[in-house]
Specification:
This protein is mainly alpha-helical and 281 residues long. It has two domains: 128 residues, no CATH class; 145 residues, no CATH class. It is built from eleven helices and three strands. Helix 3 packs antiparallel against helix 7, helix 5 runs antiparallel to helix 6 and helix 10 packs antiparallel against helix 11.
């Protein structure tokens, strides 16, 4: 059997066992995750993650296809770990989808070998970022970020001379009373920036420390973005009226700030990084 035929046979078996497991064992976890992504339940970014994983795999396809496939039964250990959770209904769908990825990793090692798994490990493990945070962690983190965002935006509009009064989570402007709900906390910014930051670090940084610096910088960037988004909503509501705090203007402002900060962050990093490399060439 030629190398190409052997590779295709192994990949076909890998796909078969993955689909079978997805239908019989991990069906609830997969459908719950898809529902969370489509309904923006803490995973607004999730729709982009599979496409990014495919891009990462495609970019490295030539090196991957050169690896000689080998059966490696060490993968049985991962297979056993992954299968325990759905089999005994352990944990929520978050944990069970994670176990599906572990199960798939085991299949890859069994059918194609450890070297192959190492080559595709980042695109595969990147799929973990689709999983929303567990509810308790999400609520605690959202509340913490909301306090930072509300405090920071209030400070900025006070510097701009806009009269207001705060009472709990309410802000009284001269022409409107707005409440900063949990959905406006900015946690979606943090999660989305974190996911795209990981992808950016993988694509544009080669050493571990450089990648960690990029990922660490995501936290202050997301907090700044959250503060500026609330500031923009308060400011535009004060200037143009309560309509600016309604659903569609609110969505437009949120996405505008998100992409503006994302583009500015990437452009700044590329400029300074290129300049640094030029000075140390």
């Amino acid at each position: 059997m030629s190398l190409i035929t052997s590779y295709r046979t192994r990949v076909a078996l890998l796909i078969f066992w993955t689909l079978l497991a997805g239908l019989l064992l991990y069906n609830t976890a997969v459908t719950s995750l898809i529902g969370a992504v489509l309904h923006r339940q803490g995973s607004s970014h999730g729709v982009f993650v599979p496409f990014l994983s495919v891009i990462f795999f495609w970019m490295n396809r030539n090196a991957i296809l050169k690896i000689e496939p080998r059966y490696d039964y060490l993968g049985i250990l991962l297979l056993a770990i992954g299968i325990v959770f759905p089999l005994f209904n352990i944990g929520t769908y978050h944990l069970q989808f994670l176990s599906f990825i572990i199960f798939f990793a085991g299949l890859v090692i069994i059918h194609l070998g450890r070297k192959y798994f190492k080559a595709i490990s980042f695109p595969l493990l990147f799929l973990i970022t689709m999983i929303p945070l567990p509810k308790d962690i999400h609520l605690a983190l959202a509340n913490y970020i909301r306090n930072i965002s509300f405090g920071g935006s209030s400070w900025i509009i006070s510097l701009l001379g806009i009269p207001f009064m705060k009472e709990g989570l309410l802000i009284y402007l001269p022409n409107a009373v707005l409440k900063v709900n949990l959905g406006c906390s900015g946690i979606r910014y943090l999660i989305s920036f974190f996911v795209f930051g990981i992808a950016y670090a993988y694509l544009y940084r080669k050493n571990t420390w450089s990648r960690l610096i990029i990922i660490a910088s995501i936290f202050p960037i997301s907090f700044i973005a959250s503060i500026l988004r609330l500031t923009a909503i308060f400011l535009l509501t004060y200037i143009f009226g309560p309509y600016m705090a309604e659903y569609w203007p609110h969505v437009f402002i949120s996405w505008s700030v998100f992409f503006a900060i994302l583009v500015l962050s990437v452009a700044s990093d590329r400029f300074f990084h290129t300049r640094y490399l030029g000075n140390h060439a």
